[in-house]
Design goal:
This protein is an all-alpha fold. The protein contains 19 helices and two strands.
């Protein structure tokens, strides 16, 4: 509801004073930032604990790679269905369910007693957390105008990197003091607190939130957000699955995100073991060094979002999104290749951080393009992209485990990752974010005929 203030008398007439727009959307962003931190706290915990889990449960590198990939496999399988649930019922309910589920599975990881039990627990953990970021994207699409989405996505993904960066030293300290099992219990307690606060405060659309003024709703609506839809409007929208799955731009984004996911999950899984076992760092040193790629990523996510929003005000969407994407992944390809070529442990650790940070420069662009392509079905569209990213994240740890365990090489995984990043950089040059899916959706629903591709 638009609240008016008393006018001021100018002598001839009374001019109403317009109230300042509320900024409730920044409260939404704060909640989503906190959630992104929590997601990576829980994900990275197992990578630091891996050497101790392997020792206690007698797991080989290949067996541990299957454990790492069980999470990403389940995450990939349930990504689109969970994104669809957010589109259908709203992110308020979807994210509450997601956080409660994965928090319970995080704590249950502490009771794993064998390879099979750990594999099942990590698979269920991945199934529960699937859909977190598609539903975060759903919330940002509804609450933020297009001109602010780059920075919003940048801050959210900065949260993932801060969570991932803080987790290694904290987990290392917990392992030293109480053992690896209690580390999982400690991290699992945080999520339910967030879920309760989120469900009580958040609403799926700004018009449903009592604290939002008409002025703020105007800013969101005029900027392309979903200010005036009711909480279940999206539930009446049917999804044209064929058009979504066959869209050339979305296919390119999925391929790019596959390459990004392949590289990302090395930092989230094998990096602490690599630093400790290959480069000779202590557990505490490797814990701190393993956090550097994510700290670099925190800074470059914000920088990428800020640069993208500023470029989009001066140039085309394609120039602002695709240039950052191509430059970021090319820089990652160069840096990660240098890791394999250097014999200096500190230089290798720093180049890993540079590679991760450079890839993250492009992360806000990937998610912003999904919003460019479709606001109406943001959960499903981002679900498709994130599914392929996590398939890459599933294959990456398995491939690394095979190259290390069976081929005895720690250099080869870095060359392969560099090739992945280079492929992603080239694919960015073919993306056209200015061709939205919404036109095709409308054409399909109205006329029953798909629009010709340009």
């Amino acid at each position: 509801m638009l609240v008016t203030e008393p006018g001021r008398n100018t002598g001839d007439k009374t001019i109403p004073i317009q109230p300042r727009p509320t900024k409730v959307r920044y409260g939404v962003l704060a909640f989503l930032f906190a959630l992104s931190v929590i997601t990576y706290f829980d994900r990275v915990c197992i990578s630091v604990a891996a050497p101790y889990i392997m020792d206690q449960l007698s797991l080989s590198p290949v067996a541990m790679s299957f454990v790492f990939s069980a999470f990403t496999l389940a995450y990939s399988i349930f990504e689109v269905p969970s994104g669809w649930l957010g589109d259908r019922f709203g992110a308020r309910k979807a994210l509450t369910r997601i956080v409660l589920w994965w928090s319970a599975l995080t704590m249950l990881t502490a009771v794993a007693w064998s390879f099979a039990s750990l594999l099942v627990l990590r698979f269920l953990f991945g199934a529960g957390e699937a859909g977190a970021f598609p539903n975060i994207s759903r919330s940002l699409s509804n609450w933020f105008p297009a001109s602010e989405r780059g920075r919003a996505y940048g801050l959210v993904f900065m949260g993932t990197r801060i969570g991932g960066a803080l987790a290694p030293p904290i987990v290392a300290g917990l392992i030293i003091v109480a053992g690896w099992r209690w580390a999982f219990v400690t991290f699992g307690v945080v999520g339910p607190i967030w879920a309760v606060l989120w469900y009580r405060w958040y609403r799926d659309h700004p018009a449903s939130h009592n604290a939002v003024s008409g002025s703020e709703m105007g800013i969101i609506r005029d900027g392309g957000g979903a200010a005036e839809r009711n909480d279940h409007a999206e539930g009446r929208q049917s999804v044209p699955w064929r058009l979504v799955a066959s869209n050339p731009n979305l296919i390119l984004l999925c391929a790019i995100y596959f390459c990004v996911g392949y590289g990302l999950y090395f930092y989230l899984t094998w990096l602490p073991s690599y630093l400790e076992q290959v480069r000779g760092f202590s557990i505490l040193s490797s814990g701190f060094l393993a956090s550097l790629p994510l700290l670099f990523g925190a800074a470059t996510n914000v920088a990428g979002g800020w640069i993208m929003d500023n470029l989009s005000n001066r140039y085309s969407l394609r120039a602002s999104r695709c240039a950052i994407g191509a430059i970021g992944l090319f820089g990652s390809a160069v840096a990660i290749t240098c890791v394999a070529l250097t014999d200096r442990p500190v230089a290798a650790a720093l180049m890993v951080a540079v590679a991760a940070g450079s890839a993250d420069l492009a992360l806000p662009a990937s998610w912003a393009v999904c919003s460019d392509l479709s606001l109406e079905h943001a959960g499903v569209v981002t679900g498709f992209m994130n599914t392929l990213g996590n398939i890459g994240g599933t294959i990456g740890p398995l491939a690394t485990g095979f190259m290390v365990g069976r081929l005895g090489s720690w250099r080869l995984p870095f060359f392969v990752t560099g090739l992945m990043y280079l492929t992603g950089a080239v694919l960015w040059l073919k993306v056209h974010p200015g061709r939205p899916l919404l036109t095709s959706f409308t054409q399909e629903l109205t006329n029953g005929q798909p629009k010709a591709r340009s």
